[in-house]
Every structure is written in C-alpha cells, then in structure tokens.
C-alpha cells in the first residue's frame, strides 16, 4: 500500500528546499551568462604598436592589390571596347577602299593595338577614340602639325569623311604621277643613277699606262727568276 502524499502546509518551507531552489536559480543564471558570452572576461593578449602597424600594412597591401587588379581589368575592358568600335568602323570603310585602283598601294586598313588603339587608313591618316570612348577622331599627320579631319560618334559620318580623304589622296597621287611623266621626275633620276657613266679620256690613258707598267713588272720578275735558276744550276749541278 502506497504512502500517502504529505499534506500541504501553509507554513514556511523547510531550509533544505530553500537552499535547493537557490542553487537551481544560480545554476540557471550561470548557464545563461555562459551562453551569452558573459561568463567572465577571457584573458586577451594585448598587441604592441609594431604588431598593429604590421597588421594595418598587410591589410592596406591587400586592399591596394585588389584595387590595382580591378583598375587593370577596367582598363583592359575599355581598350577591348575601343578595339571593337574600331573594327566596326574598319568593316564599314573596307568596301570603299576596295574600289581603289589595283596598282595603288597607298591604303591598308590595320588596327594598331596599344595604349591608344588606332585604325590606320594609310601611313599618315588614322582614326582613334576620344576620351569618352564613344567618339571617333579622324586625324592626319602633316608637315606642320597633326590636324583633325572629322570628329563624330556616327559611323556613317566617319565613313563619308574617310571616303573624301581617300578621294583626295588618289587625286594627289595622280598629280604626282603626271608631274613625273611630264618632266621625267624620279624616273629620269633613276635612269641617270643606274646608267653606266663613260670613263673620261684621261682616265683611259692612265689605265693603259698602269697596264703597261704591270706588264713590264711581270716580265722583269719572270726574267729575274730565270736568271736565278740558271745561276743555281751552273753553281750546284755542273760545278
């Protein structure tokens, strides 16, 4: 037969119950502080000024490398975009240059990569991008300075400017060929430079004199050899 439960009394609780309740609350508080990281300050190792500076410098170097890599990537992307725009313009100008005479070798479309990519039409005319990376600038080198022939962001306008430039260059070429044909020009200079020049009369006489001297010298040398051979024969063989 089970023991009956103790009857509830309205009087004060026993001392051992009060102690047990207090220890339970203390255990709960300590557990909560440990979970929240407030169980007690951990011993921290203080860093000296040198270690702090080294840590700061390492962080700064890491940040500088990242920024430098980002900047290099951005610059490379901008140059690649410029090259693509110049290639589009080259594709639009190519049909115009295809109509040039076959014996004309003045024009040669080529993109020169570099810090400033350029599309060369000939040796003195080229196209490059402006600072905004969107506007084309058609430039030409002259004897005095570099001039701007056209500046626009529209490909059609640049093609028209390149067409006019090619036409003027062809007219200049025709004028140069006509001047050479009328006055002899460079062809006469080439013929005069390659034609054999006749030797003057005094030069011919001097050359004949030198030949005669060489002939006499050769005869005297061989005569001396014959005399020496005869003397040696008489002295050592017959004697």
The radius of gyration over CA amounts to 51 Å
Structural class: alpha+beta
Order of neighbouring strands in the sheet with most strands = 1-2-3-4-5
The number of helical elements comes to 5
What is the count of β-strands? 5
Q: What is the overall shape?
A: elongated
| CA(first)-CA(last) distance | 172 Å
Q: Which whole number gives the mean pLDDT?
A: 76
Q: What share of the residues does DSSP label as strand, in percent?
A: 5-15%
Residue stretches low in confidence (pLDDT < 50, at least 5 long) are 1-10, 38-44
Largest sheet, if any? 5 strands, antiparallel
Q: Output the helix-strand order.
A: HHEEEEEHHH
Give helix % range: 55-70%
Label this structure with key terms.
62% helix; single chain; disordered N terminus; alpha+beta; 239 residues; elongated
Give a quick precis of the structure.
This protein is of the alpha+beta class.
How would you sum up this structure, described in words?
- It is a single chain.
- By secondary structure, the protein is α+β, with helices and mostly antiparallel strands.
- The chain is built from 5 helices and 5 strands.
- A hairpin with a 5-residue loop joins strand 1 and strand 2.
- The chain is elongated and about 150 Å long.
- Mean pLDDT is 76; it is low at 1-10 and 38-44.
């Amino acid at each position: 037969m089970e023991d009956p439960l103790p009857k509830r009394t309205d009087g004060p609780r026993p001392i051992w119950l009060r102690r047990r309740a207090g220890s339970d609350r203390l255990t709960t508080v300590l557990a909560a502080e440990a979970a929240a990281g407030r169980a007690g300050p951990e011993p921290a190792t203080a860093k000296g000024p040198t270690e702090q500076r080294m840590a700061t410098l390492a962080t700064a170097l890491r940040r500088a490398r990242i920024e430098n890599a980002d900047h290099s990537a951005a610059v490379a992307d901008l140059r690649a975009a410029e090259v693509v725009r110049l290639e589009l313009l080259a594709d639009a100008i190519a049909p115009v240059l295809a109509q040039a005479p076959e014996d004309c070798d003045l024009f040669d479309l080529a993109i020169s990569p570099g810090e400033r990519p350029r599309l060369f039409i000939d040796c003195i005319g080229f196209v490059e991008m402006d600072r905004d990376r969107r506007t084309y600038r058609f430039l030409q080198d002259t004897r005095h300075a570099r001039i701007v022939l056209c500046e626009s962001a529209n490909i059609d306008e640049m093609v028209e400017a390149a067409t006019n430039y090619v036409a003027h260059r062809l007219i200049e070429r025709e004028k140069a060929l006509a001047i050479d044909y009328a006055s002899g020009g460079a062809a006469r200079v080439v013929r005069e430079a390659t034609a054999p020049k006749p030797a003057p009369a005094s030069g011919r006489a001097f050359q004949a004199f030198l030949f005669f001297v060489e002939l006499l010298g050769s005869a005297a040398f061989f005569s001396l050899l014959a005399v020496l051979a005869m003397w040696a024969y008489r002295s050592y063989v017959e004697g």
